[in-house]
Design a protein that fits this description.
With about 325 residues, the protein is an alpha+beta fold. The chain has two domains: about 35-110, no CATH class; about 115-290, no CATH class. The chain has helices at about 1-15, 100-110, 115-120, 125-145, 165-185, 185-195, 205-230, 235-255, 265-285, 315-325; strands spanning about 35-40, 40-45, 65, 70-75, 85-90, 95-100, 110, 285-290, 295, 300, 310. The chain has a five-stranded antiparallel beta sheet with strand order 6-5-4-1-7, with helices on both faces. A two-stranded antiparallel sheet has the order 2-3. Strands 8-9 form a two-stranded antiparallel sheet. Helix 4 crosses helix 8.
């Protein structure tokens, strides 16, 4: 229990030190003095200020390279521009500064904030596809190996702890809320992307629920790791963790693919009812090992110490109590 609390302290400290969510700005989600970081190989700027009905001056074009930090200096509206009427002046230093179309700027930069950069990194389609492929492959391999050896897997041959199931339910809740935000209120997510926070308080309701689900999923995942390491040998614990991550990826894939037709809500409700009922019926701890005190669903071999525990008939248990009282 002490180890679990120590693991939760860094998460709680980050949550308490997180900034508050700013109100949404009118028109765009960033303004003057906002900081960006270039993520493309290079980005060309226009040195001179764009003018109405005047050709673009290409005599000198400053270049921004990957990793360069930028600050927004000014905006200009050119209605005659057929490409993009909004121009943004950005500066890297006193010598490297210039103007660029807003749509070109936003495709080459990300906000200079670790949370925004993490959101951008994990929203890359090729990365998501790769993670889902690895997760599905891990689940298939573990199920195949389970035909020859009885492995501990979530929902299949689970451990007597509700934390893995709770972490899966909370993770899928966060995925469900994320899909709802992207589908119904994308402007709310855009504001959060430019002004991120880890504090779930003071946000729009759906964002508060999303961040709360993420935090609770992390807490339950830490508690689940503690229980898995205490109940299973190291090799089996690693396999169980891999299978749990694979379950997350498979669930993320299904909920993402069905979000457009709103079938994800039905799938989540079916999974939640099935997972809770299966845990209560087959894996909830009803007794403890007679040797080490580990939680067990019923009589059998202890997963921690390997002791074979047998059920004691009620009459025998009453006889033992009578003998103990006589002594």
């Amino acid at each position: 229990m002490k180890t679990r609390l120590l693991l939760l302290l860094p998460l709680l400290s980050v949550a308490l030190q997180a900034c508050h969510y700013p109100p949404q700005a009118a028109g765009r989600c960033y303004g003057v003095n906002y900081n960006f970081v270039c993520i493309s190989d290079s980005m060309t700027l226009q040195a001179g200020r764009p003018l109405h009905n005047q050709p673009v001056d290409t005599s000198f074009q400053p270049v921004i390279f990957r990793g360069d930090e930028l600050v927004v200096a000014a905006f200009a509206i050119i209605p005659e521009d057929s490409i993009d009427s909004v121009w943004v002046k950005v500066a890297h230093d006193q010598l490297t500064q210039g103007w660029v179309h807003e749509q070109d700027l936003l495709t080459h930069v990300v906000p200079n904030d670790p949370i925004s950069q993490s959101i951008y990194f994990f929203s890359q389609r090729h990365l998501v596809v790769f993670l889902i492929f690895v997760g599905c492959l891990a689940v298939v391999q573990l199920l195949w190996r389970n035909r020859h050896s009885q492995l501990h897997l979530p929902h299949y041959h689970d451990i007597p702890s509700f934390y893995p199931t709770a972490s899966a339910l909370l993770f899928f809740s966060a995925v469900l809320l994320y899909g709802s935000i992207q589908q119904y209120v994308p402007q709310t997510w855009e504001v959060f992307y430019f002004h991120p926070t880890l504090n779930p308080f003071g946000l729009p309701l759906i964002l508060s629920l999303f961040l709360s689900a993420v935090w609770l999923a992390l807490v339950c995942l830490v508690a689940a790791a503690d229980d898995v390491l205490s109940m299973l040998p190291p090799i089996q614990a690693i396999r169980y963790g891999v299978s749990l991550v694979g379950l997350f990826m498979v669930g993320y894939l299904l909920l993402s693919l069905t979000s457009r037709i709103e079938l994800n809500y039905v799938l989540f409700i079916i999974y939640a009812v099935w997972a809770v009922c299966r845990y209560v019926r087959h894996f909830a701890p009803h007794c403890r090992c007679g040797r080490c005190g580990a939680k067990m669903h019923g009589p059998g071999k202890c997963t921690r110490c390997g002791t074979e525990n047998t059920a004691v008939p009620p009459t025998s248990l009453r006889t033992l109590k009578d003998q103990h009282s006589r002594l």
